[in-house]
Amino acid sequence: MGRPRLYCGQACRQRAYEQRTATAKASLSGDVVLVTRAELDGLQDRLYQLRCALEDVQTLLTERPTKAELESSLAEVLRSTGRLDRLWVSERAG
């Protein structure tokens, strides 16, 4: 119904299909996401690290930083994000 879904690739299309199928079988709404405690804790830790790195940059900007200090702080922001862009929570087998 409506407009066709757009996906970045075949793998994303497959994961979305698996998610819809799994939630339908379990009689869950389509917006429910199940993750393990370890996955959730890991994500929360990474988000906390990112928040702290951004606060450090914000503080540094009020102190007339040198180029080296800015580069160091921004490198820390990049390091703290890890590969959040590759985070994908998918269905676990049985």
Concise account of the structure shown:
The protein is 60% helix and 0% strand. By secondary structure, the protein is mainly α. Helix 2 packs antiparallel against helix 3.
List the helices and strands and how they pair.
Blueprint (H helix, E strand, L loop, with lengths): L9 H16 L11 H25 L5 H15 L13
Tell me what the structure shows:
- This protein is 60% helix and 0% strand.
- The protein has helices spanning 10-25, 37-61, 67-81.
- α2 (37-61) packs antiparallel against α3.
Label this structure with key terms:
94 residues, mainly alpha
Q: Whole-number radius of gyration? A: 19 Å
- Please count the beta strands (DSSP E, at least 2 residues each): 0
What structural category characterises the helix and strand content?
Answer: mainly alpha
Number of helices: 3
| Unreliable residue runs | none
Please state the overall shape, judged from the principal axes of the Cα atoms. elongated
Q: How many domains make up the 3D coordinates?
A: 1
N-end to C-end Cα span: 31 Å
Largest sheet: none
Helix content: 55-70%
How do the SSEs run, as a string of H and E?
A: HHH
The percentage of residues in β strands lies in under 5%
Output mean pLDDT: 82
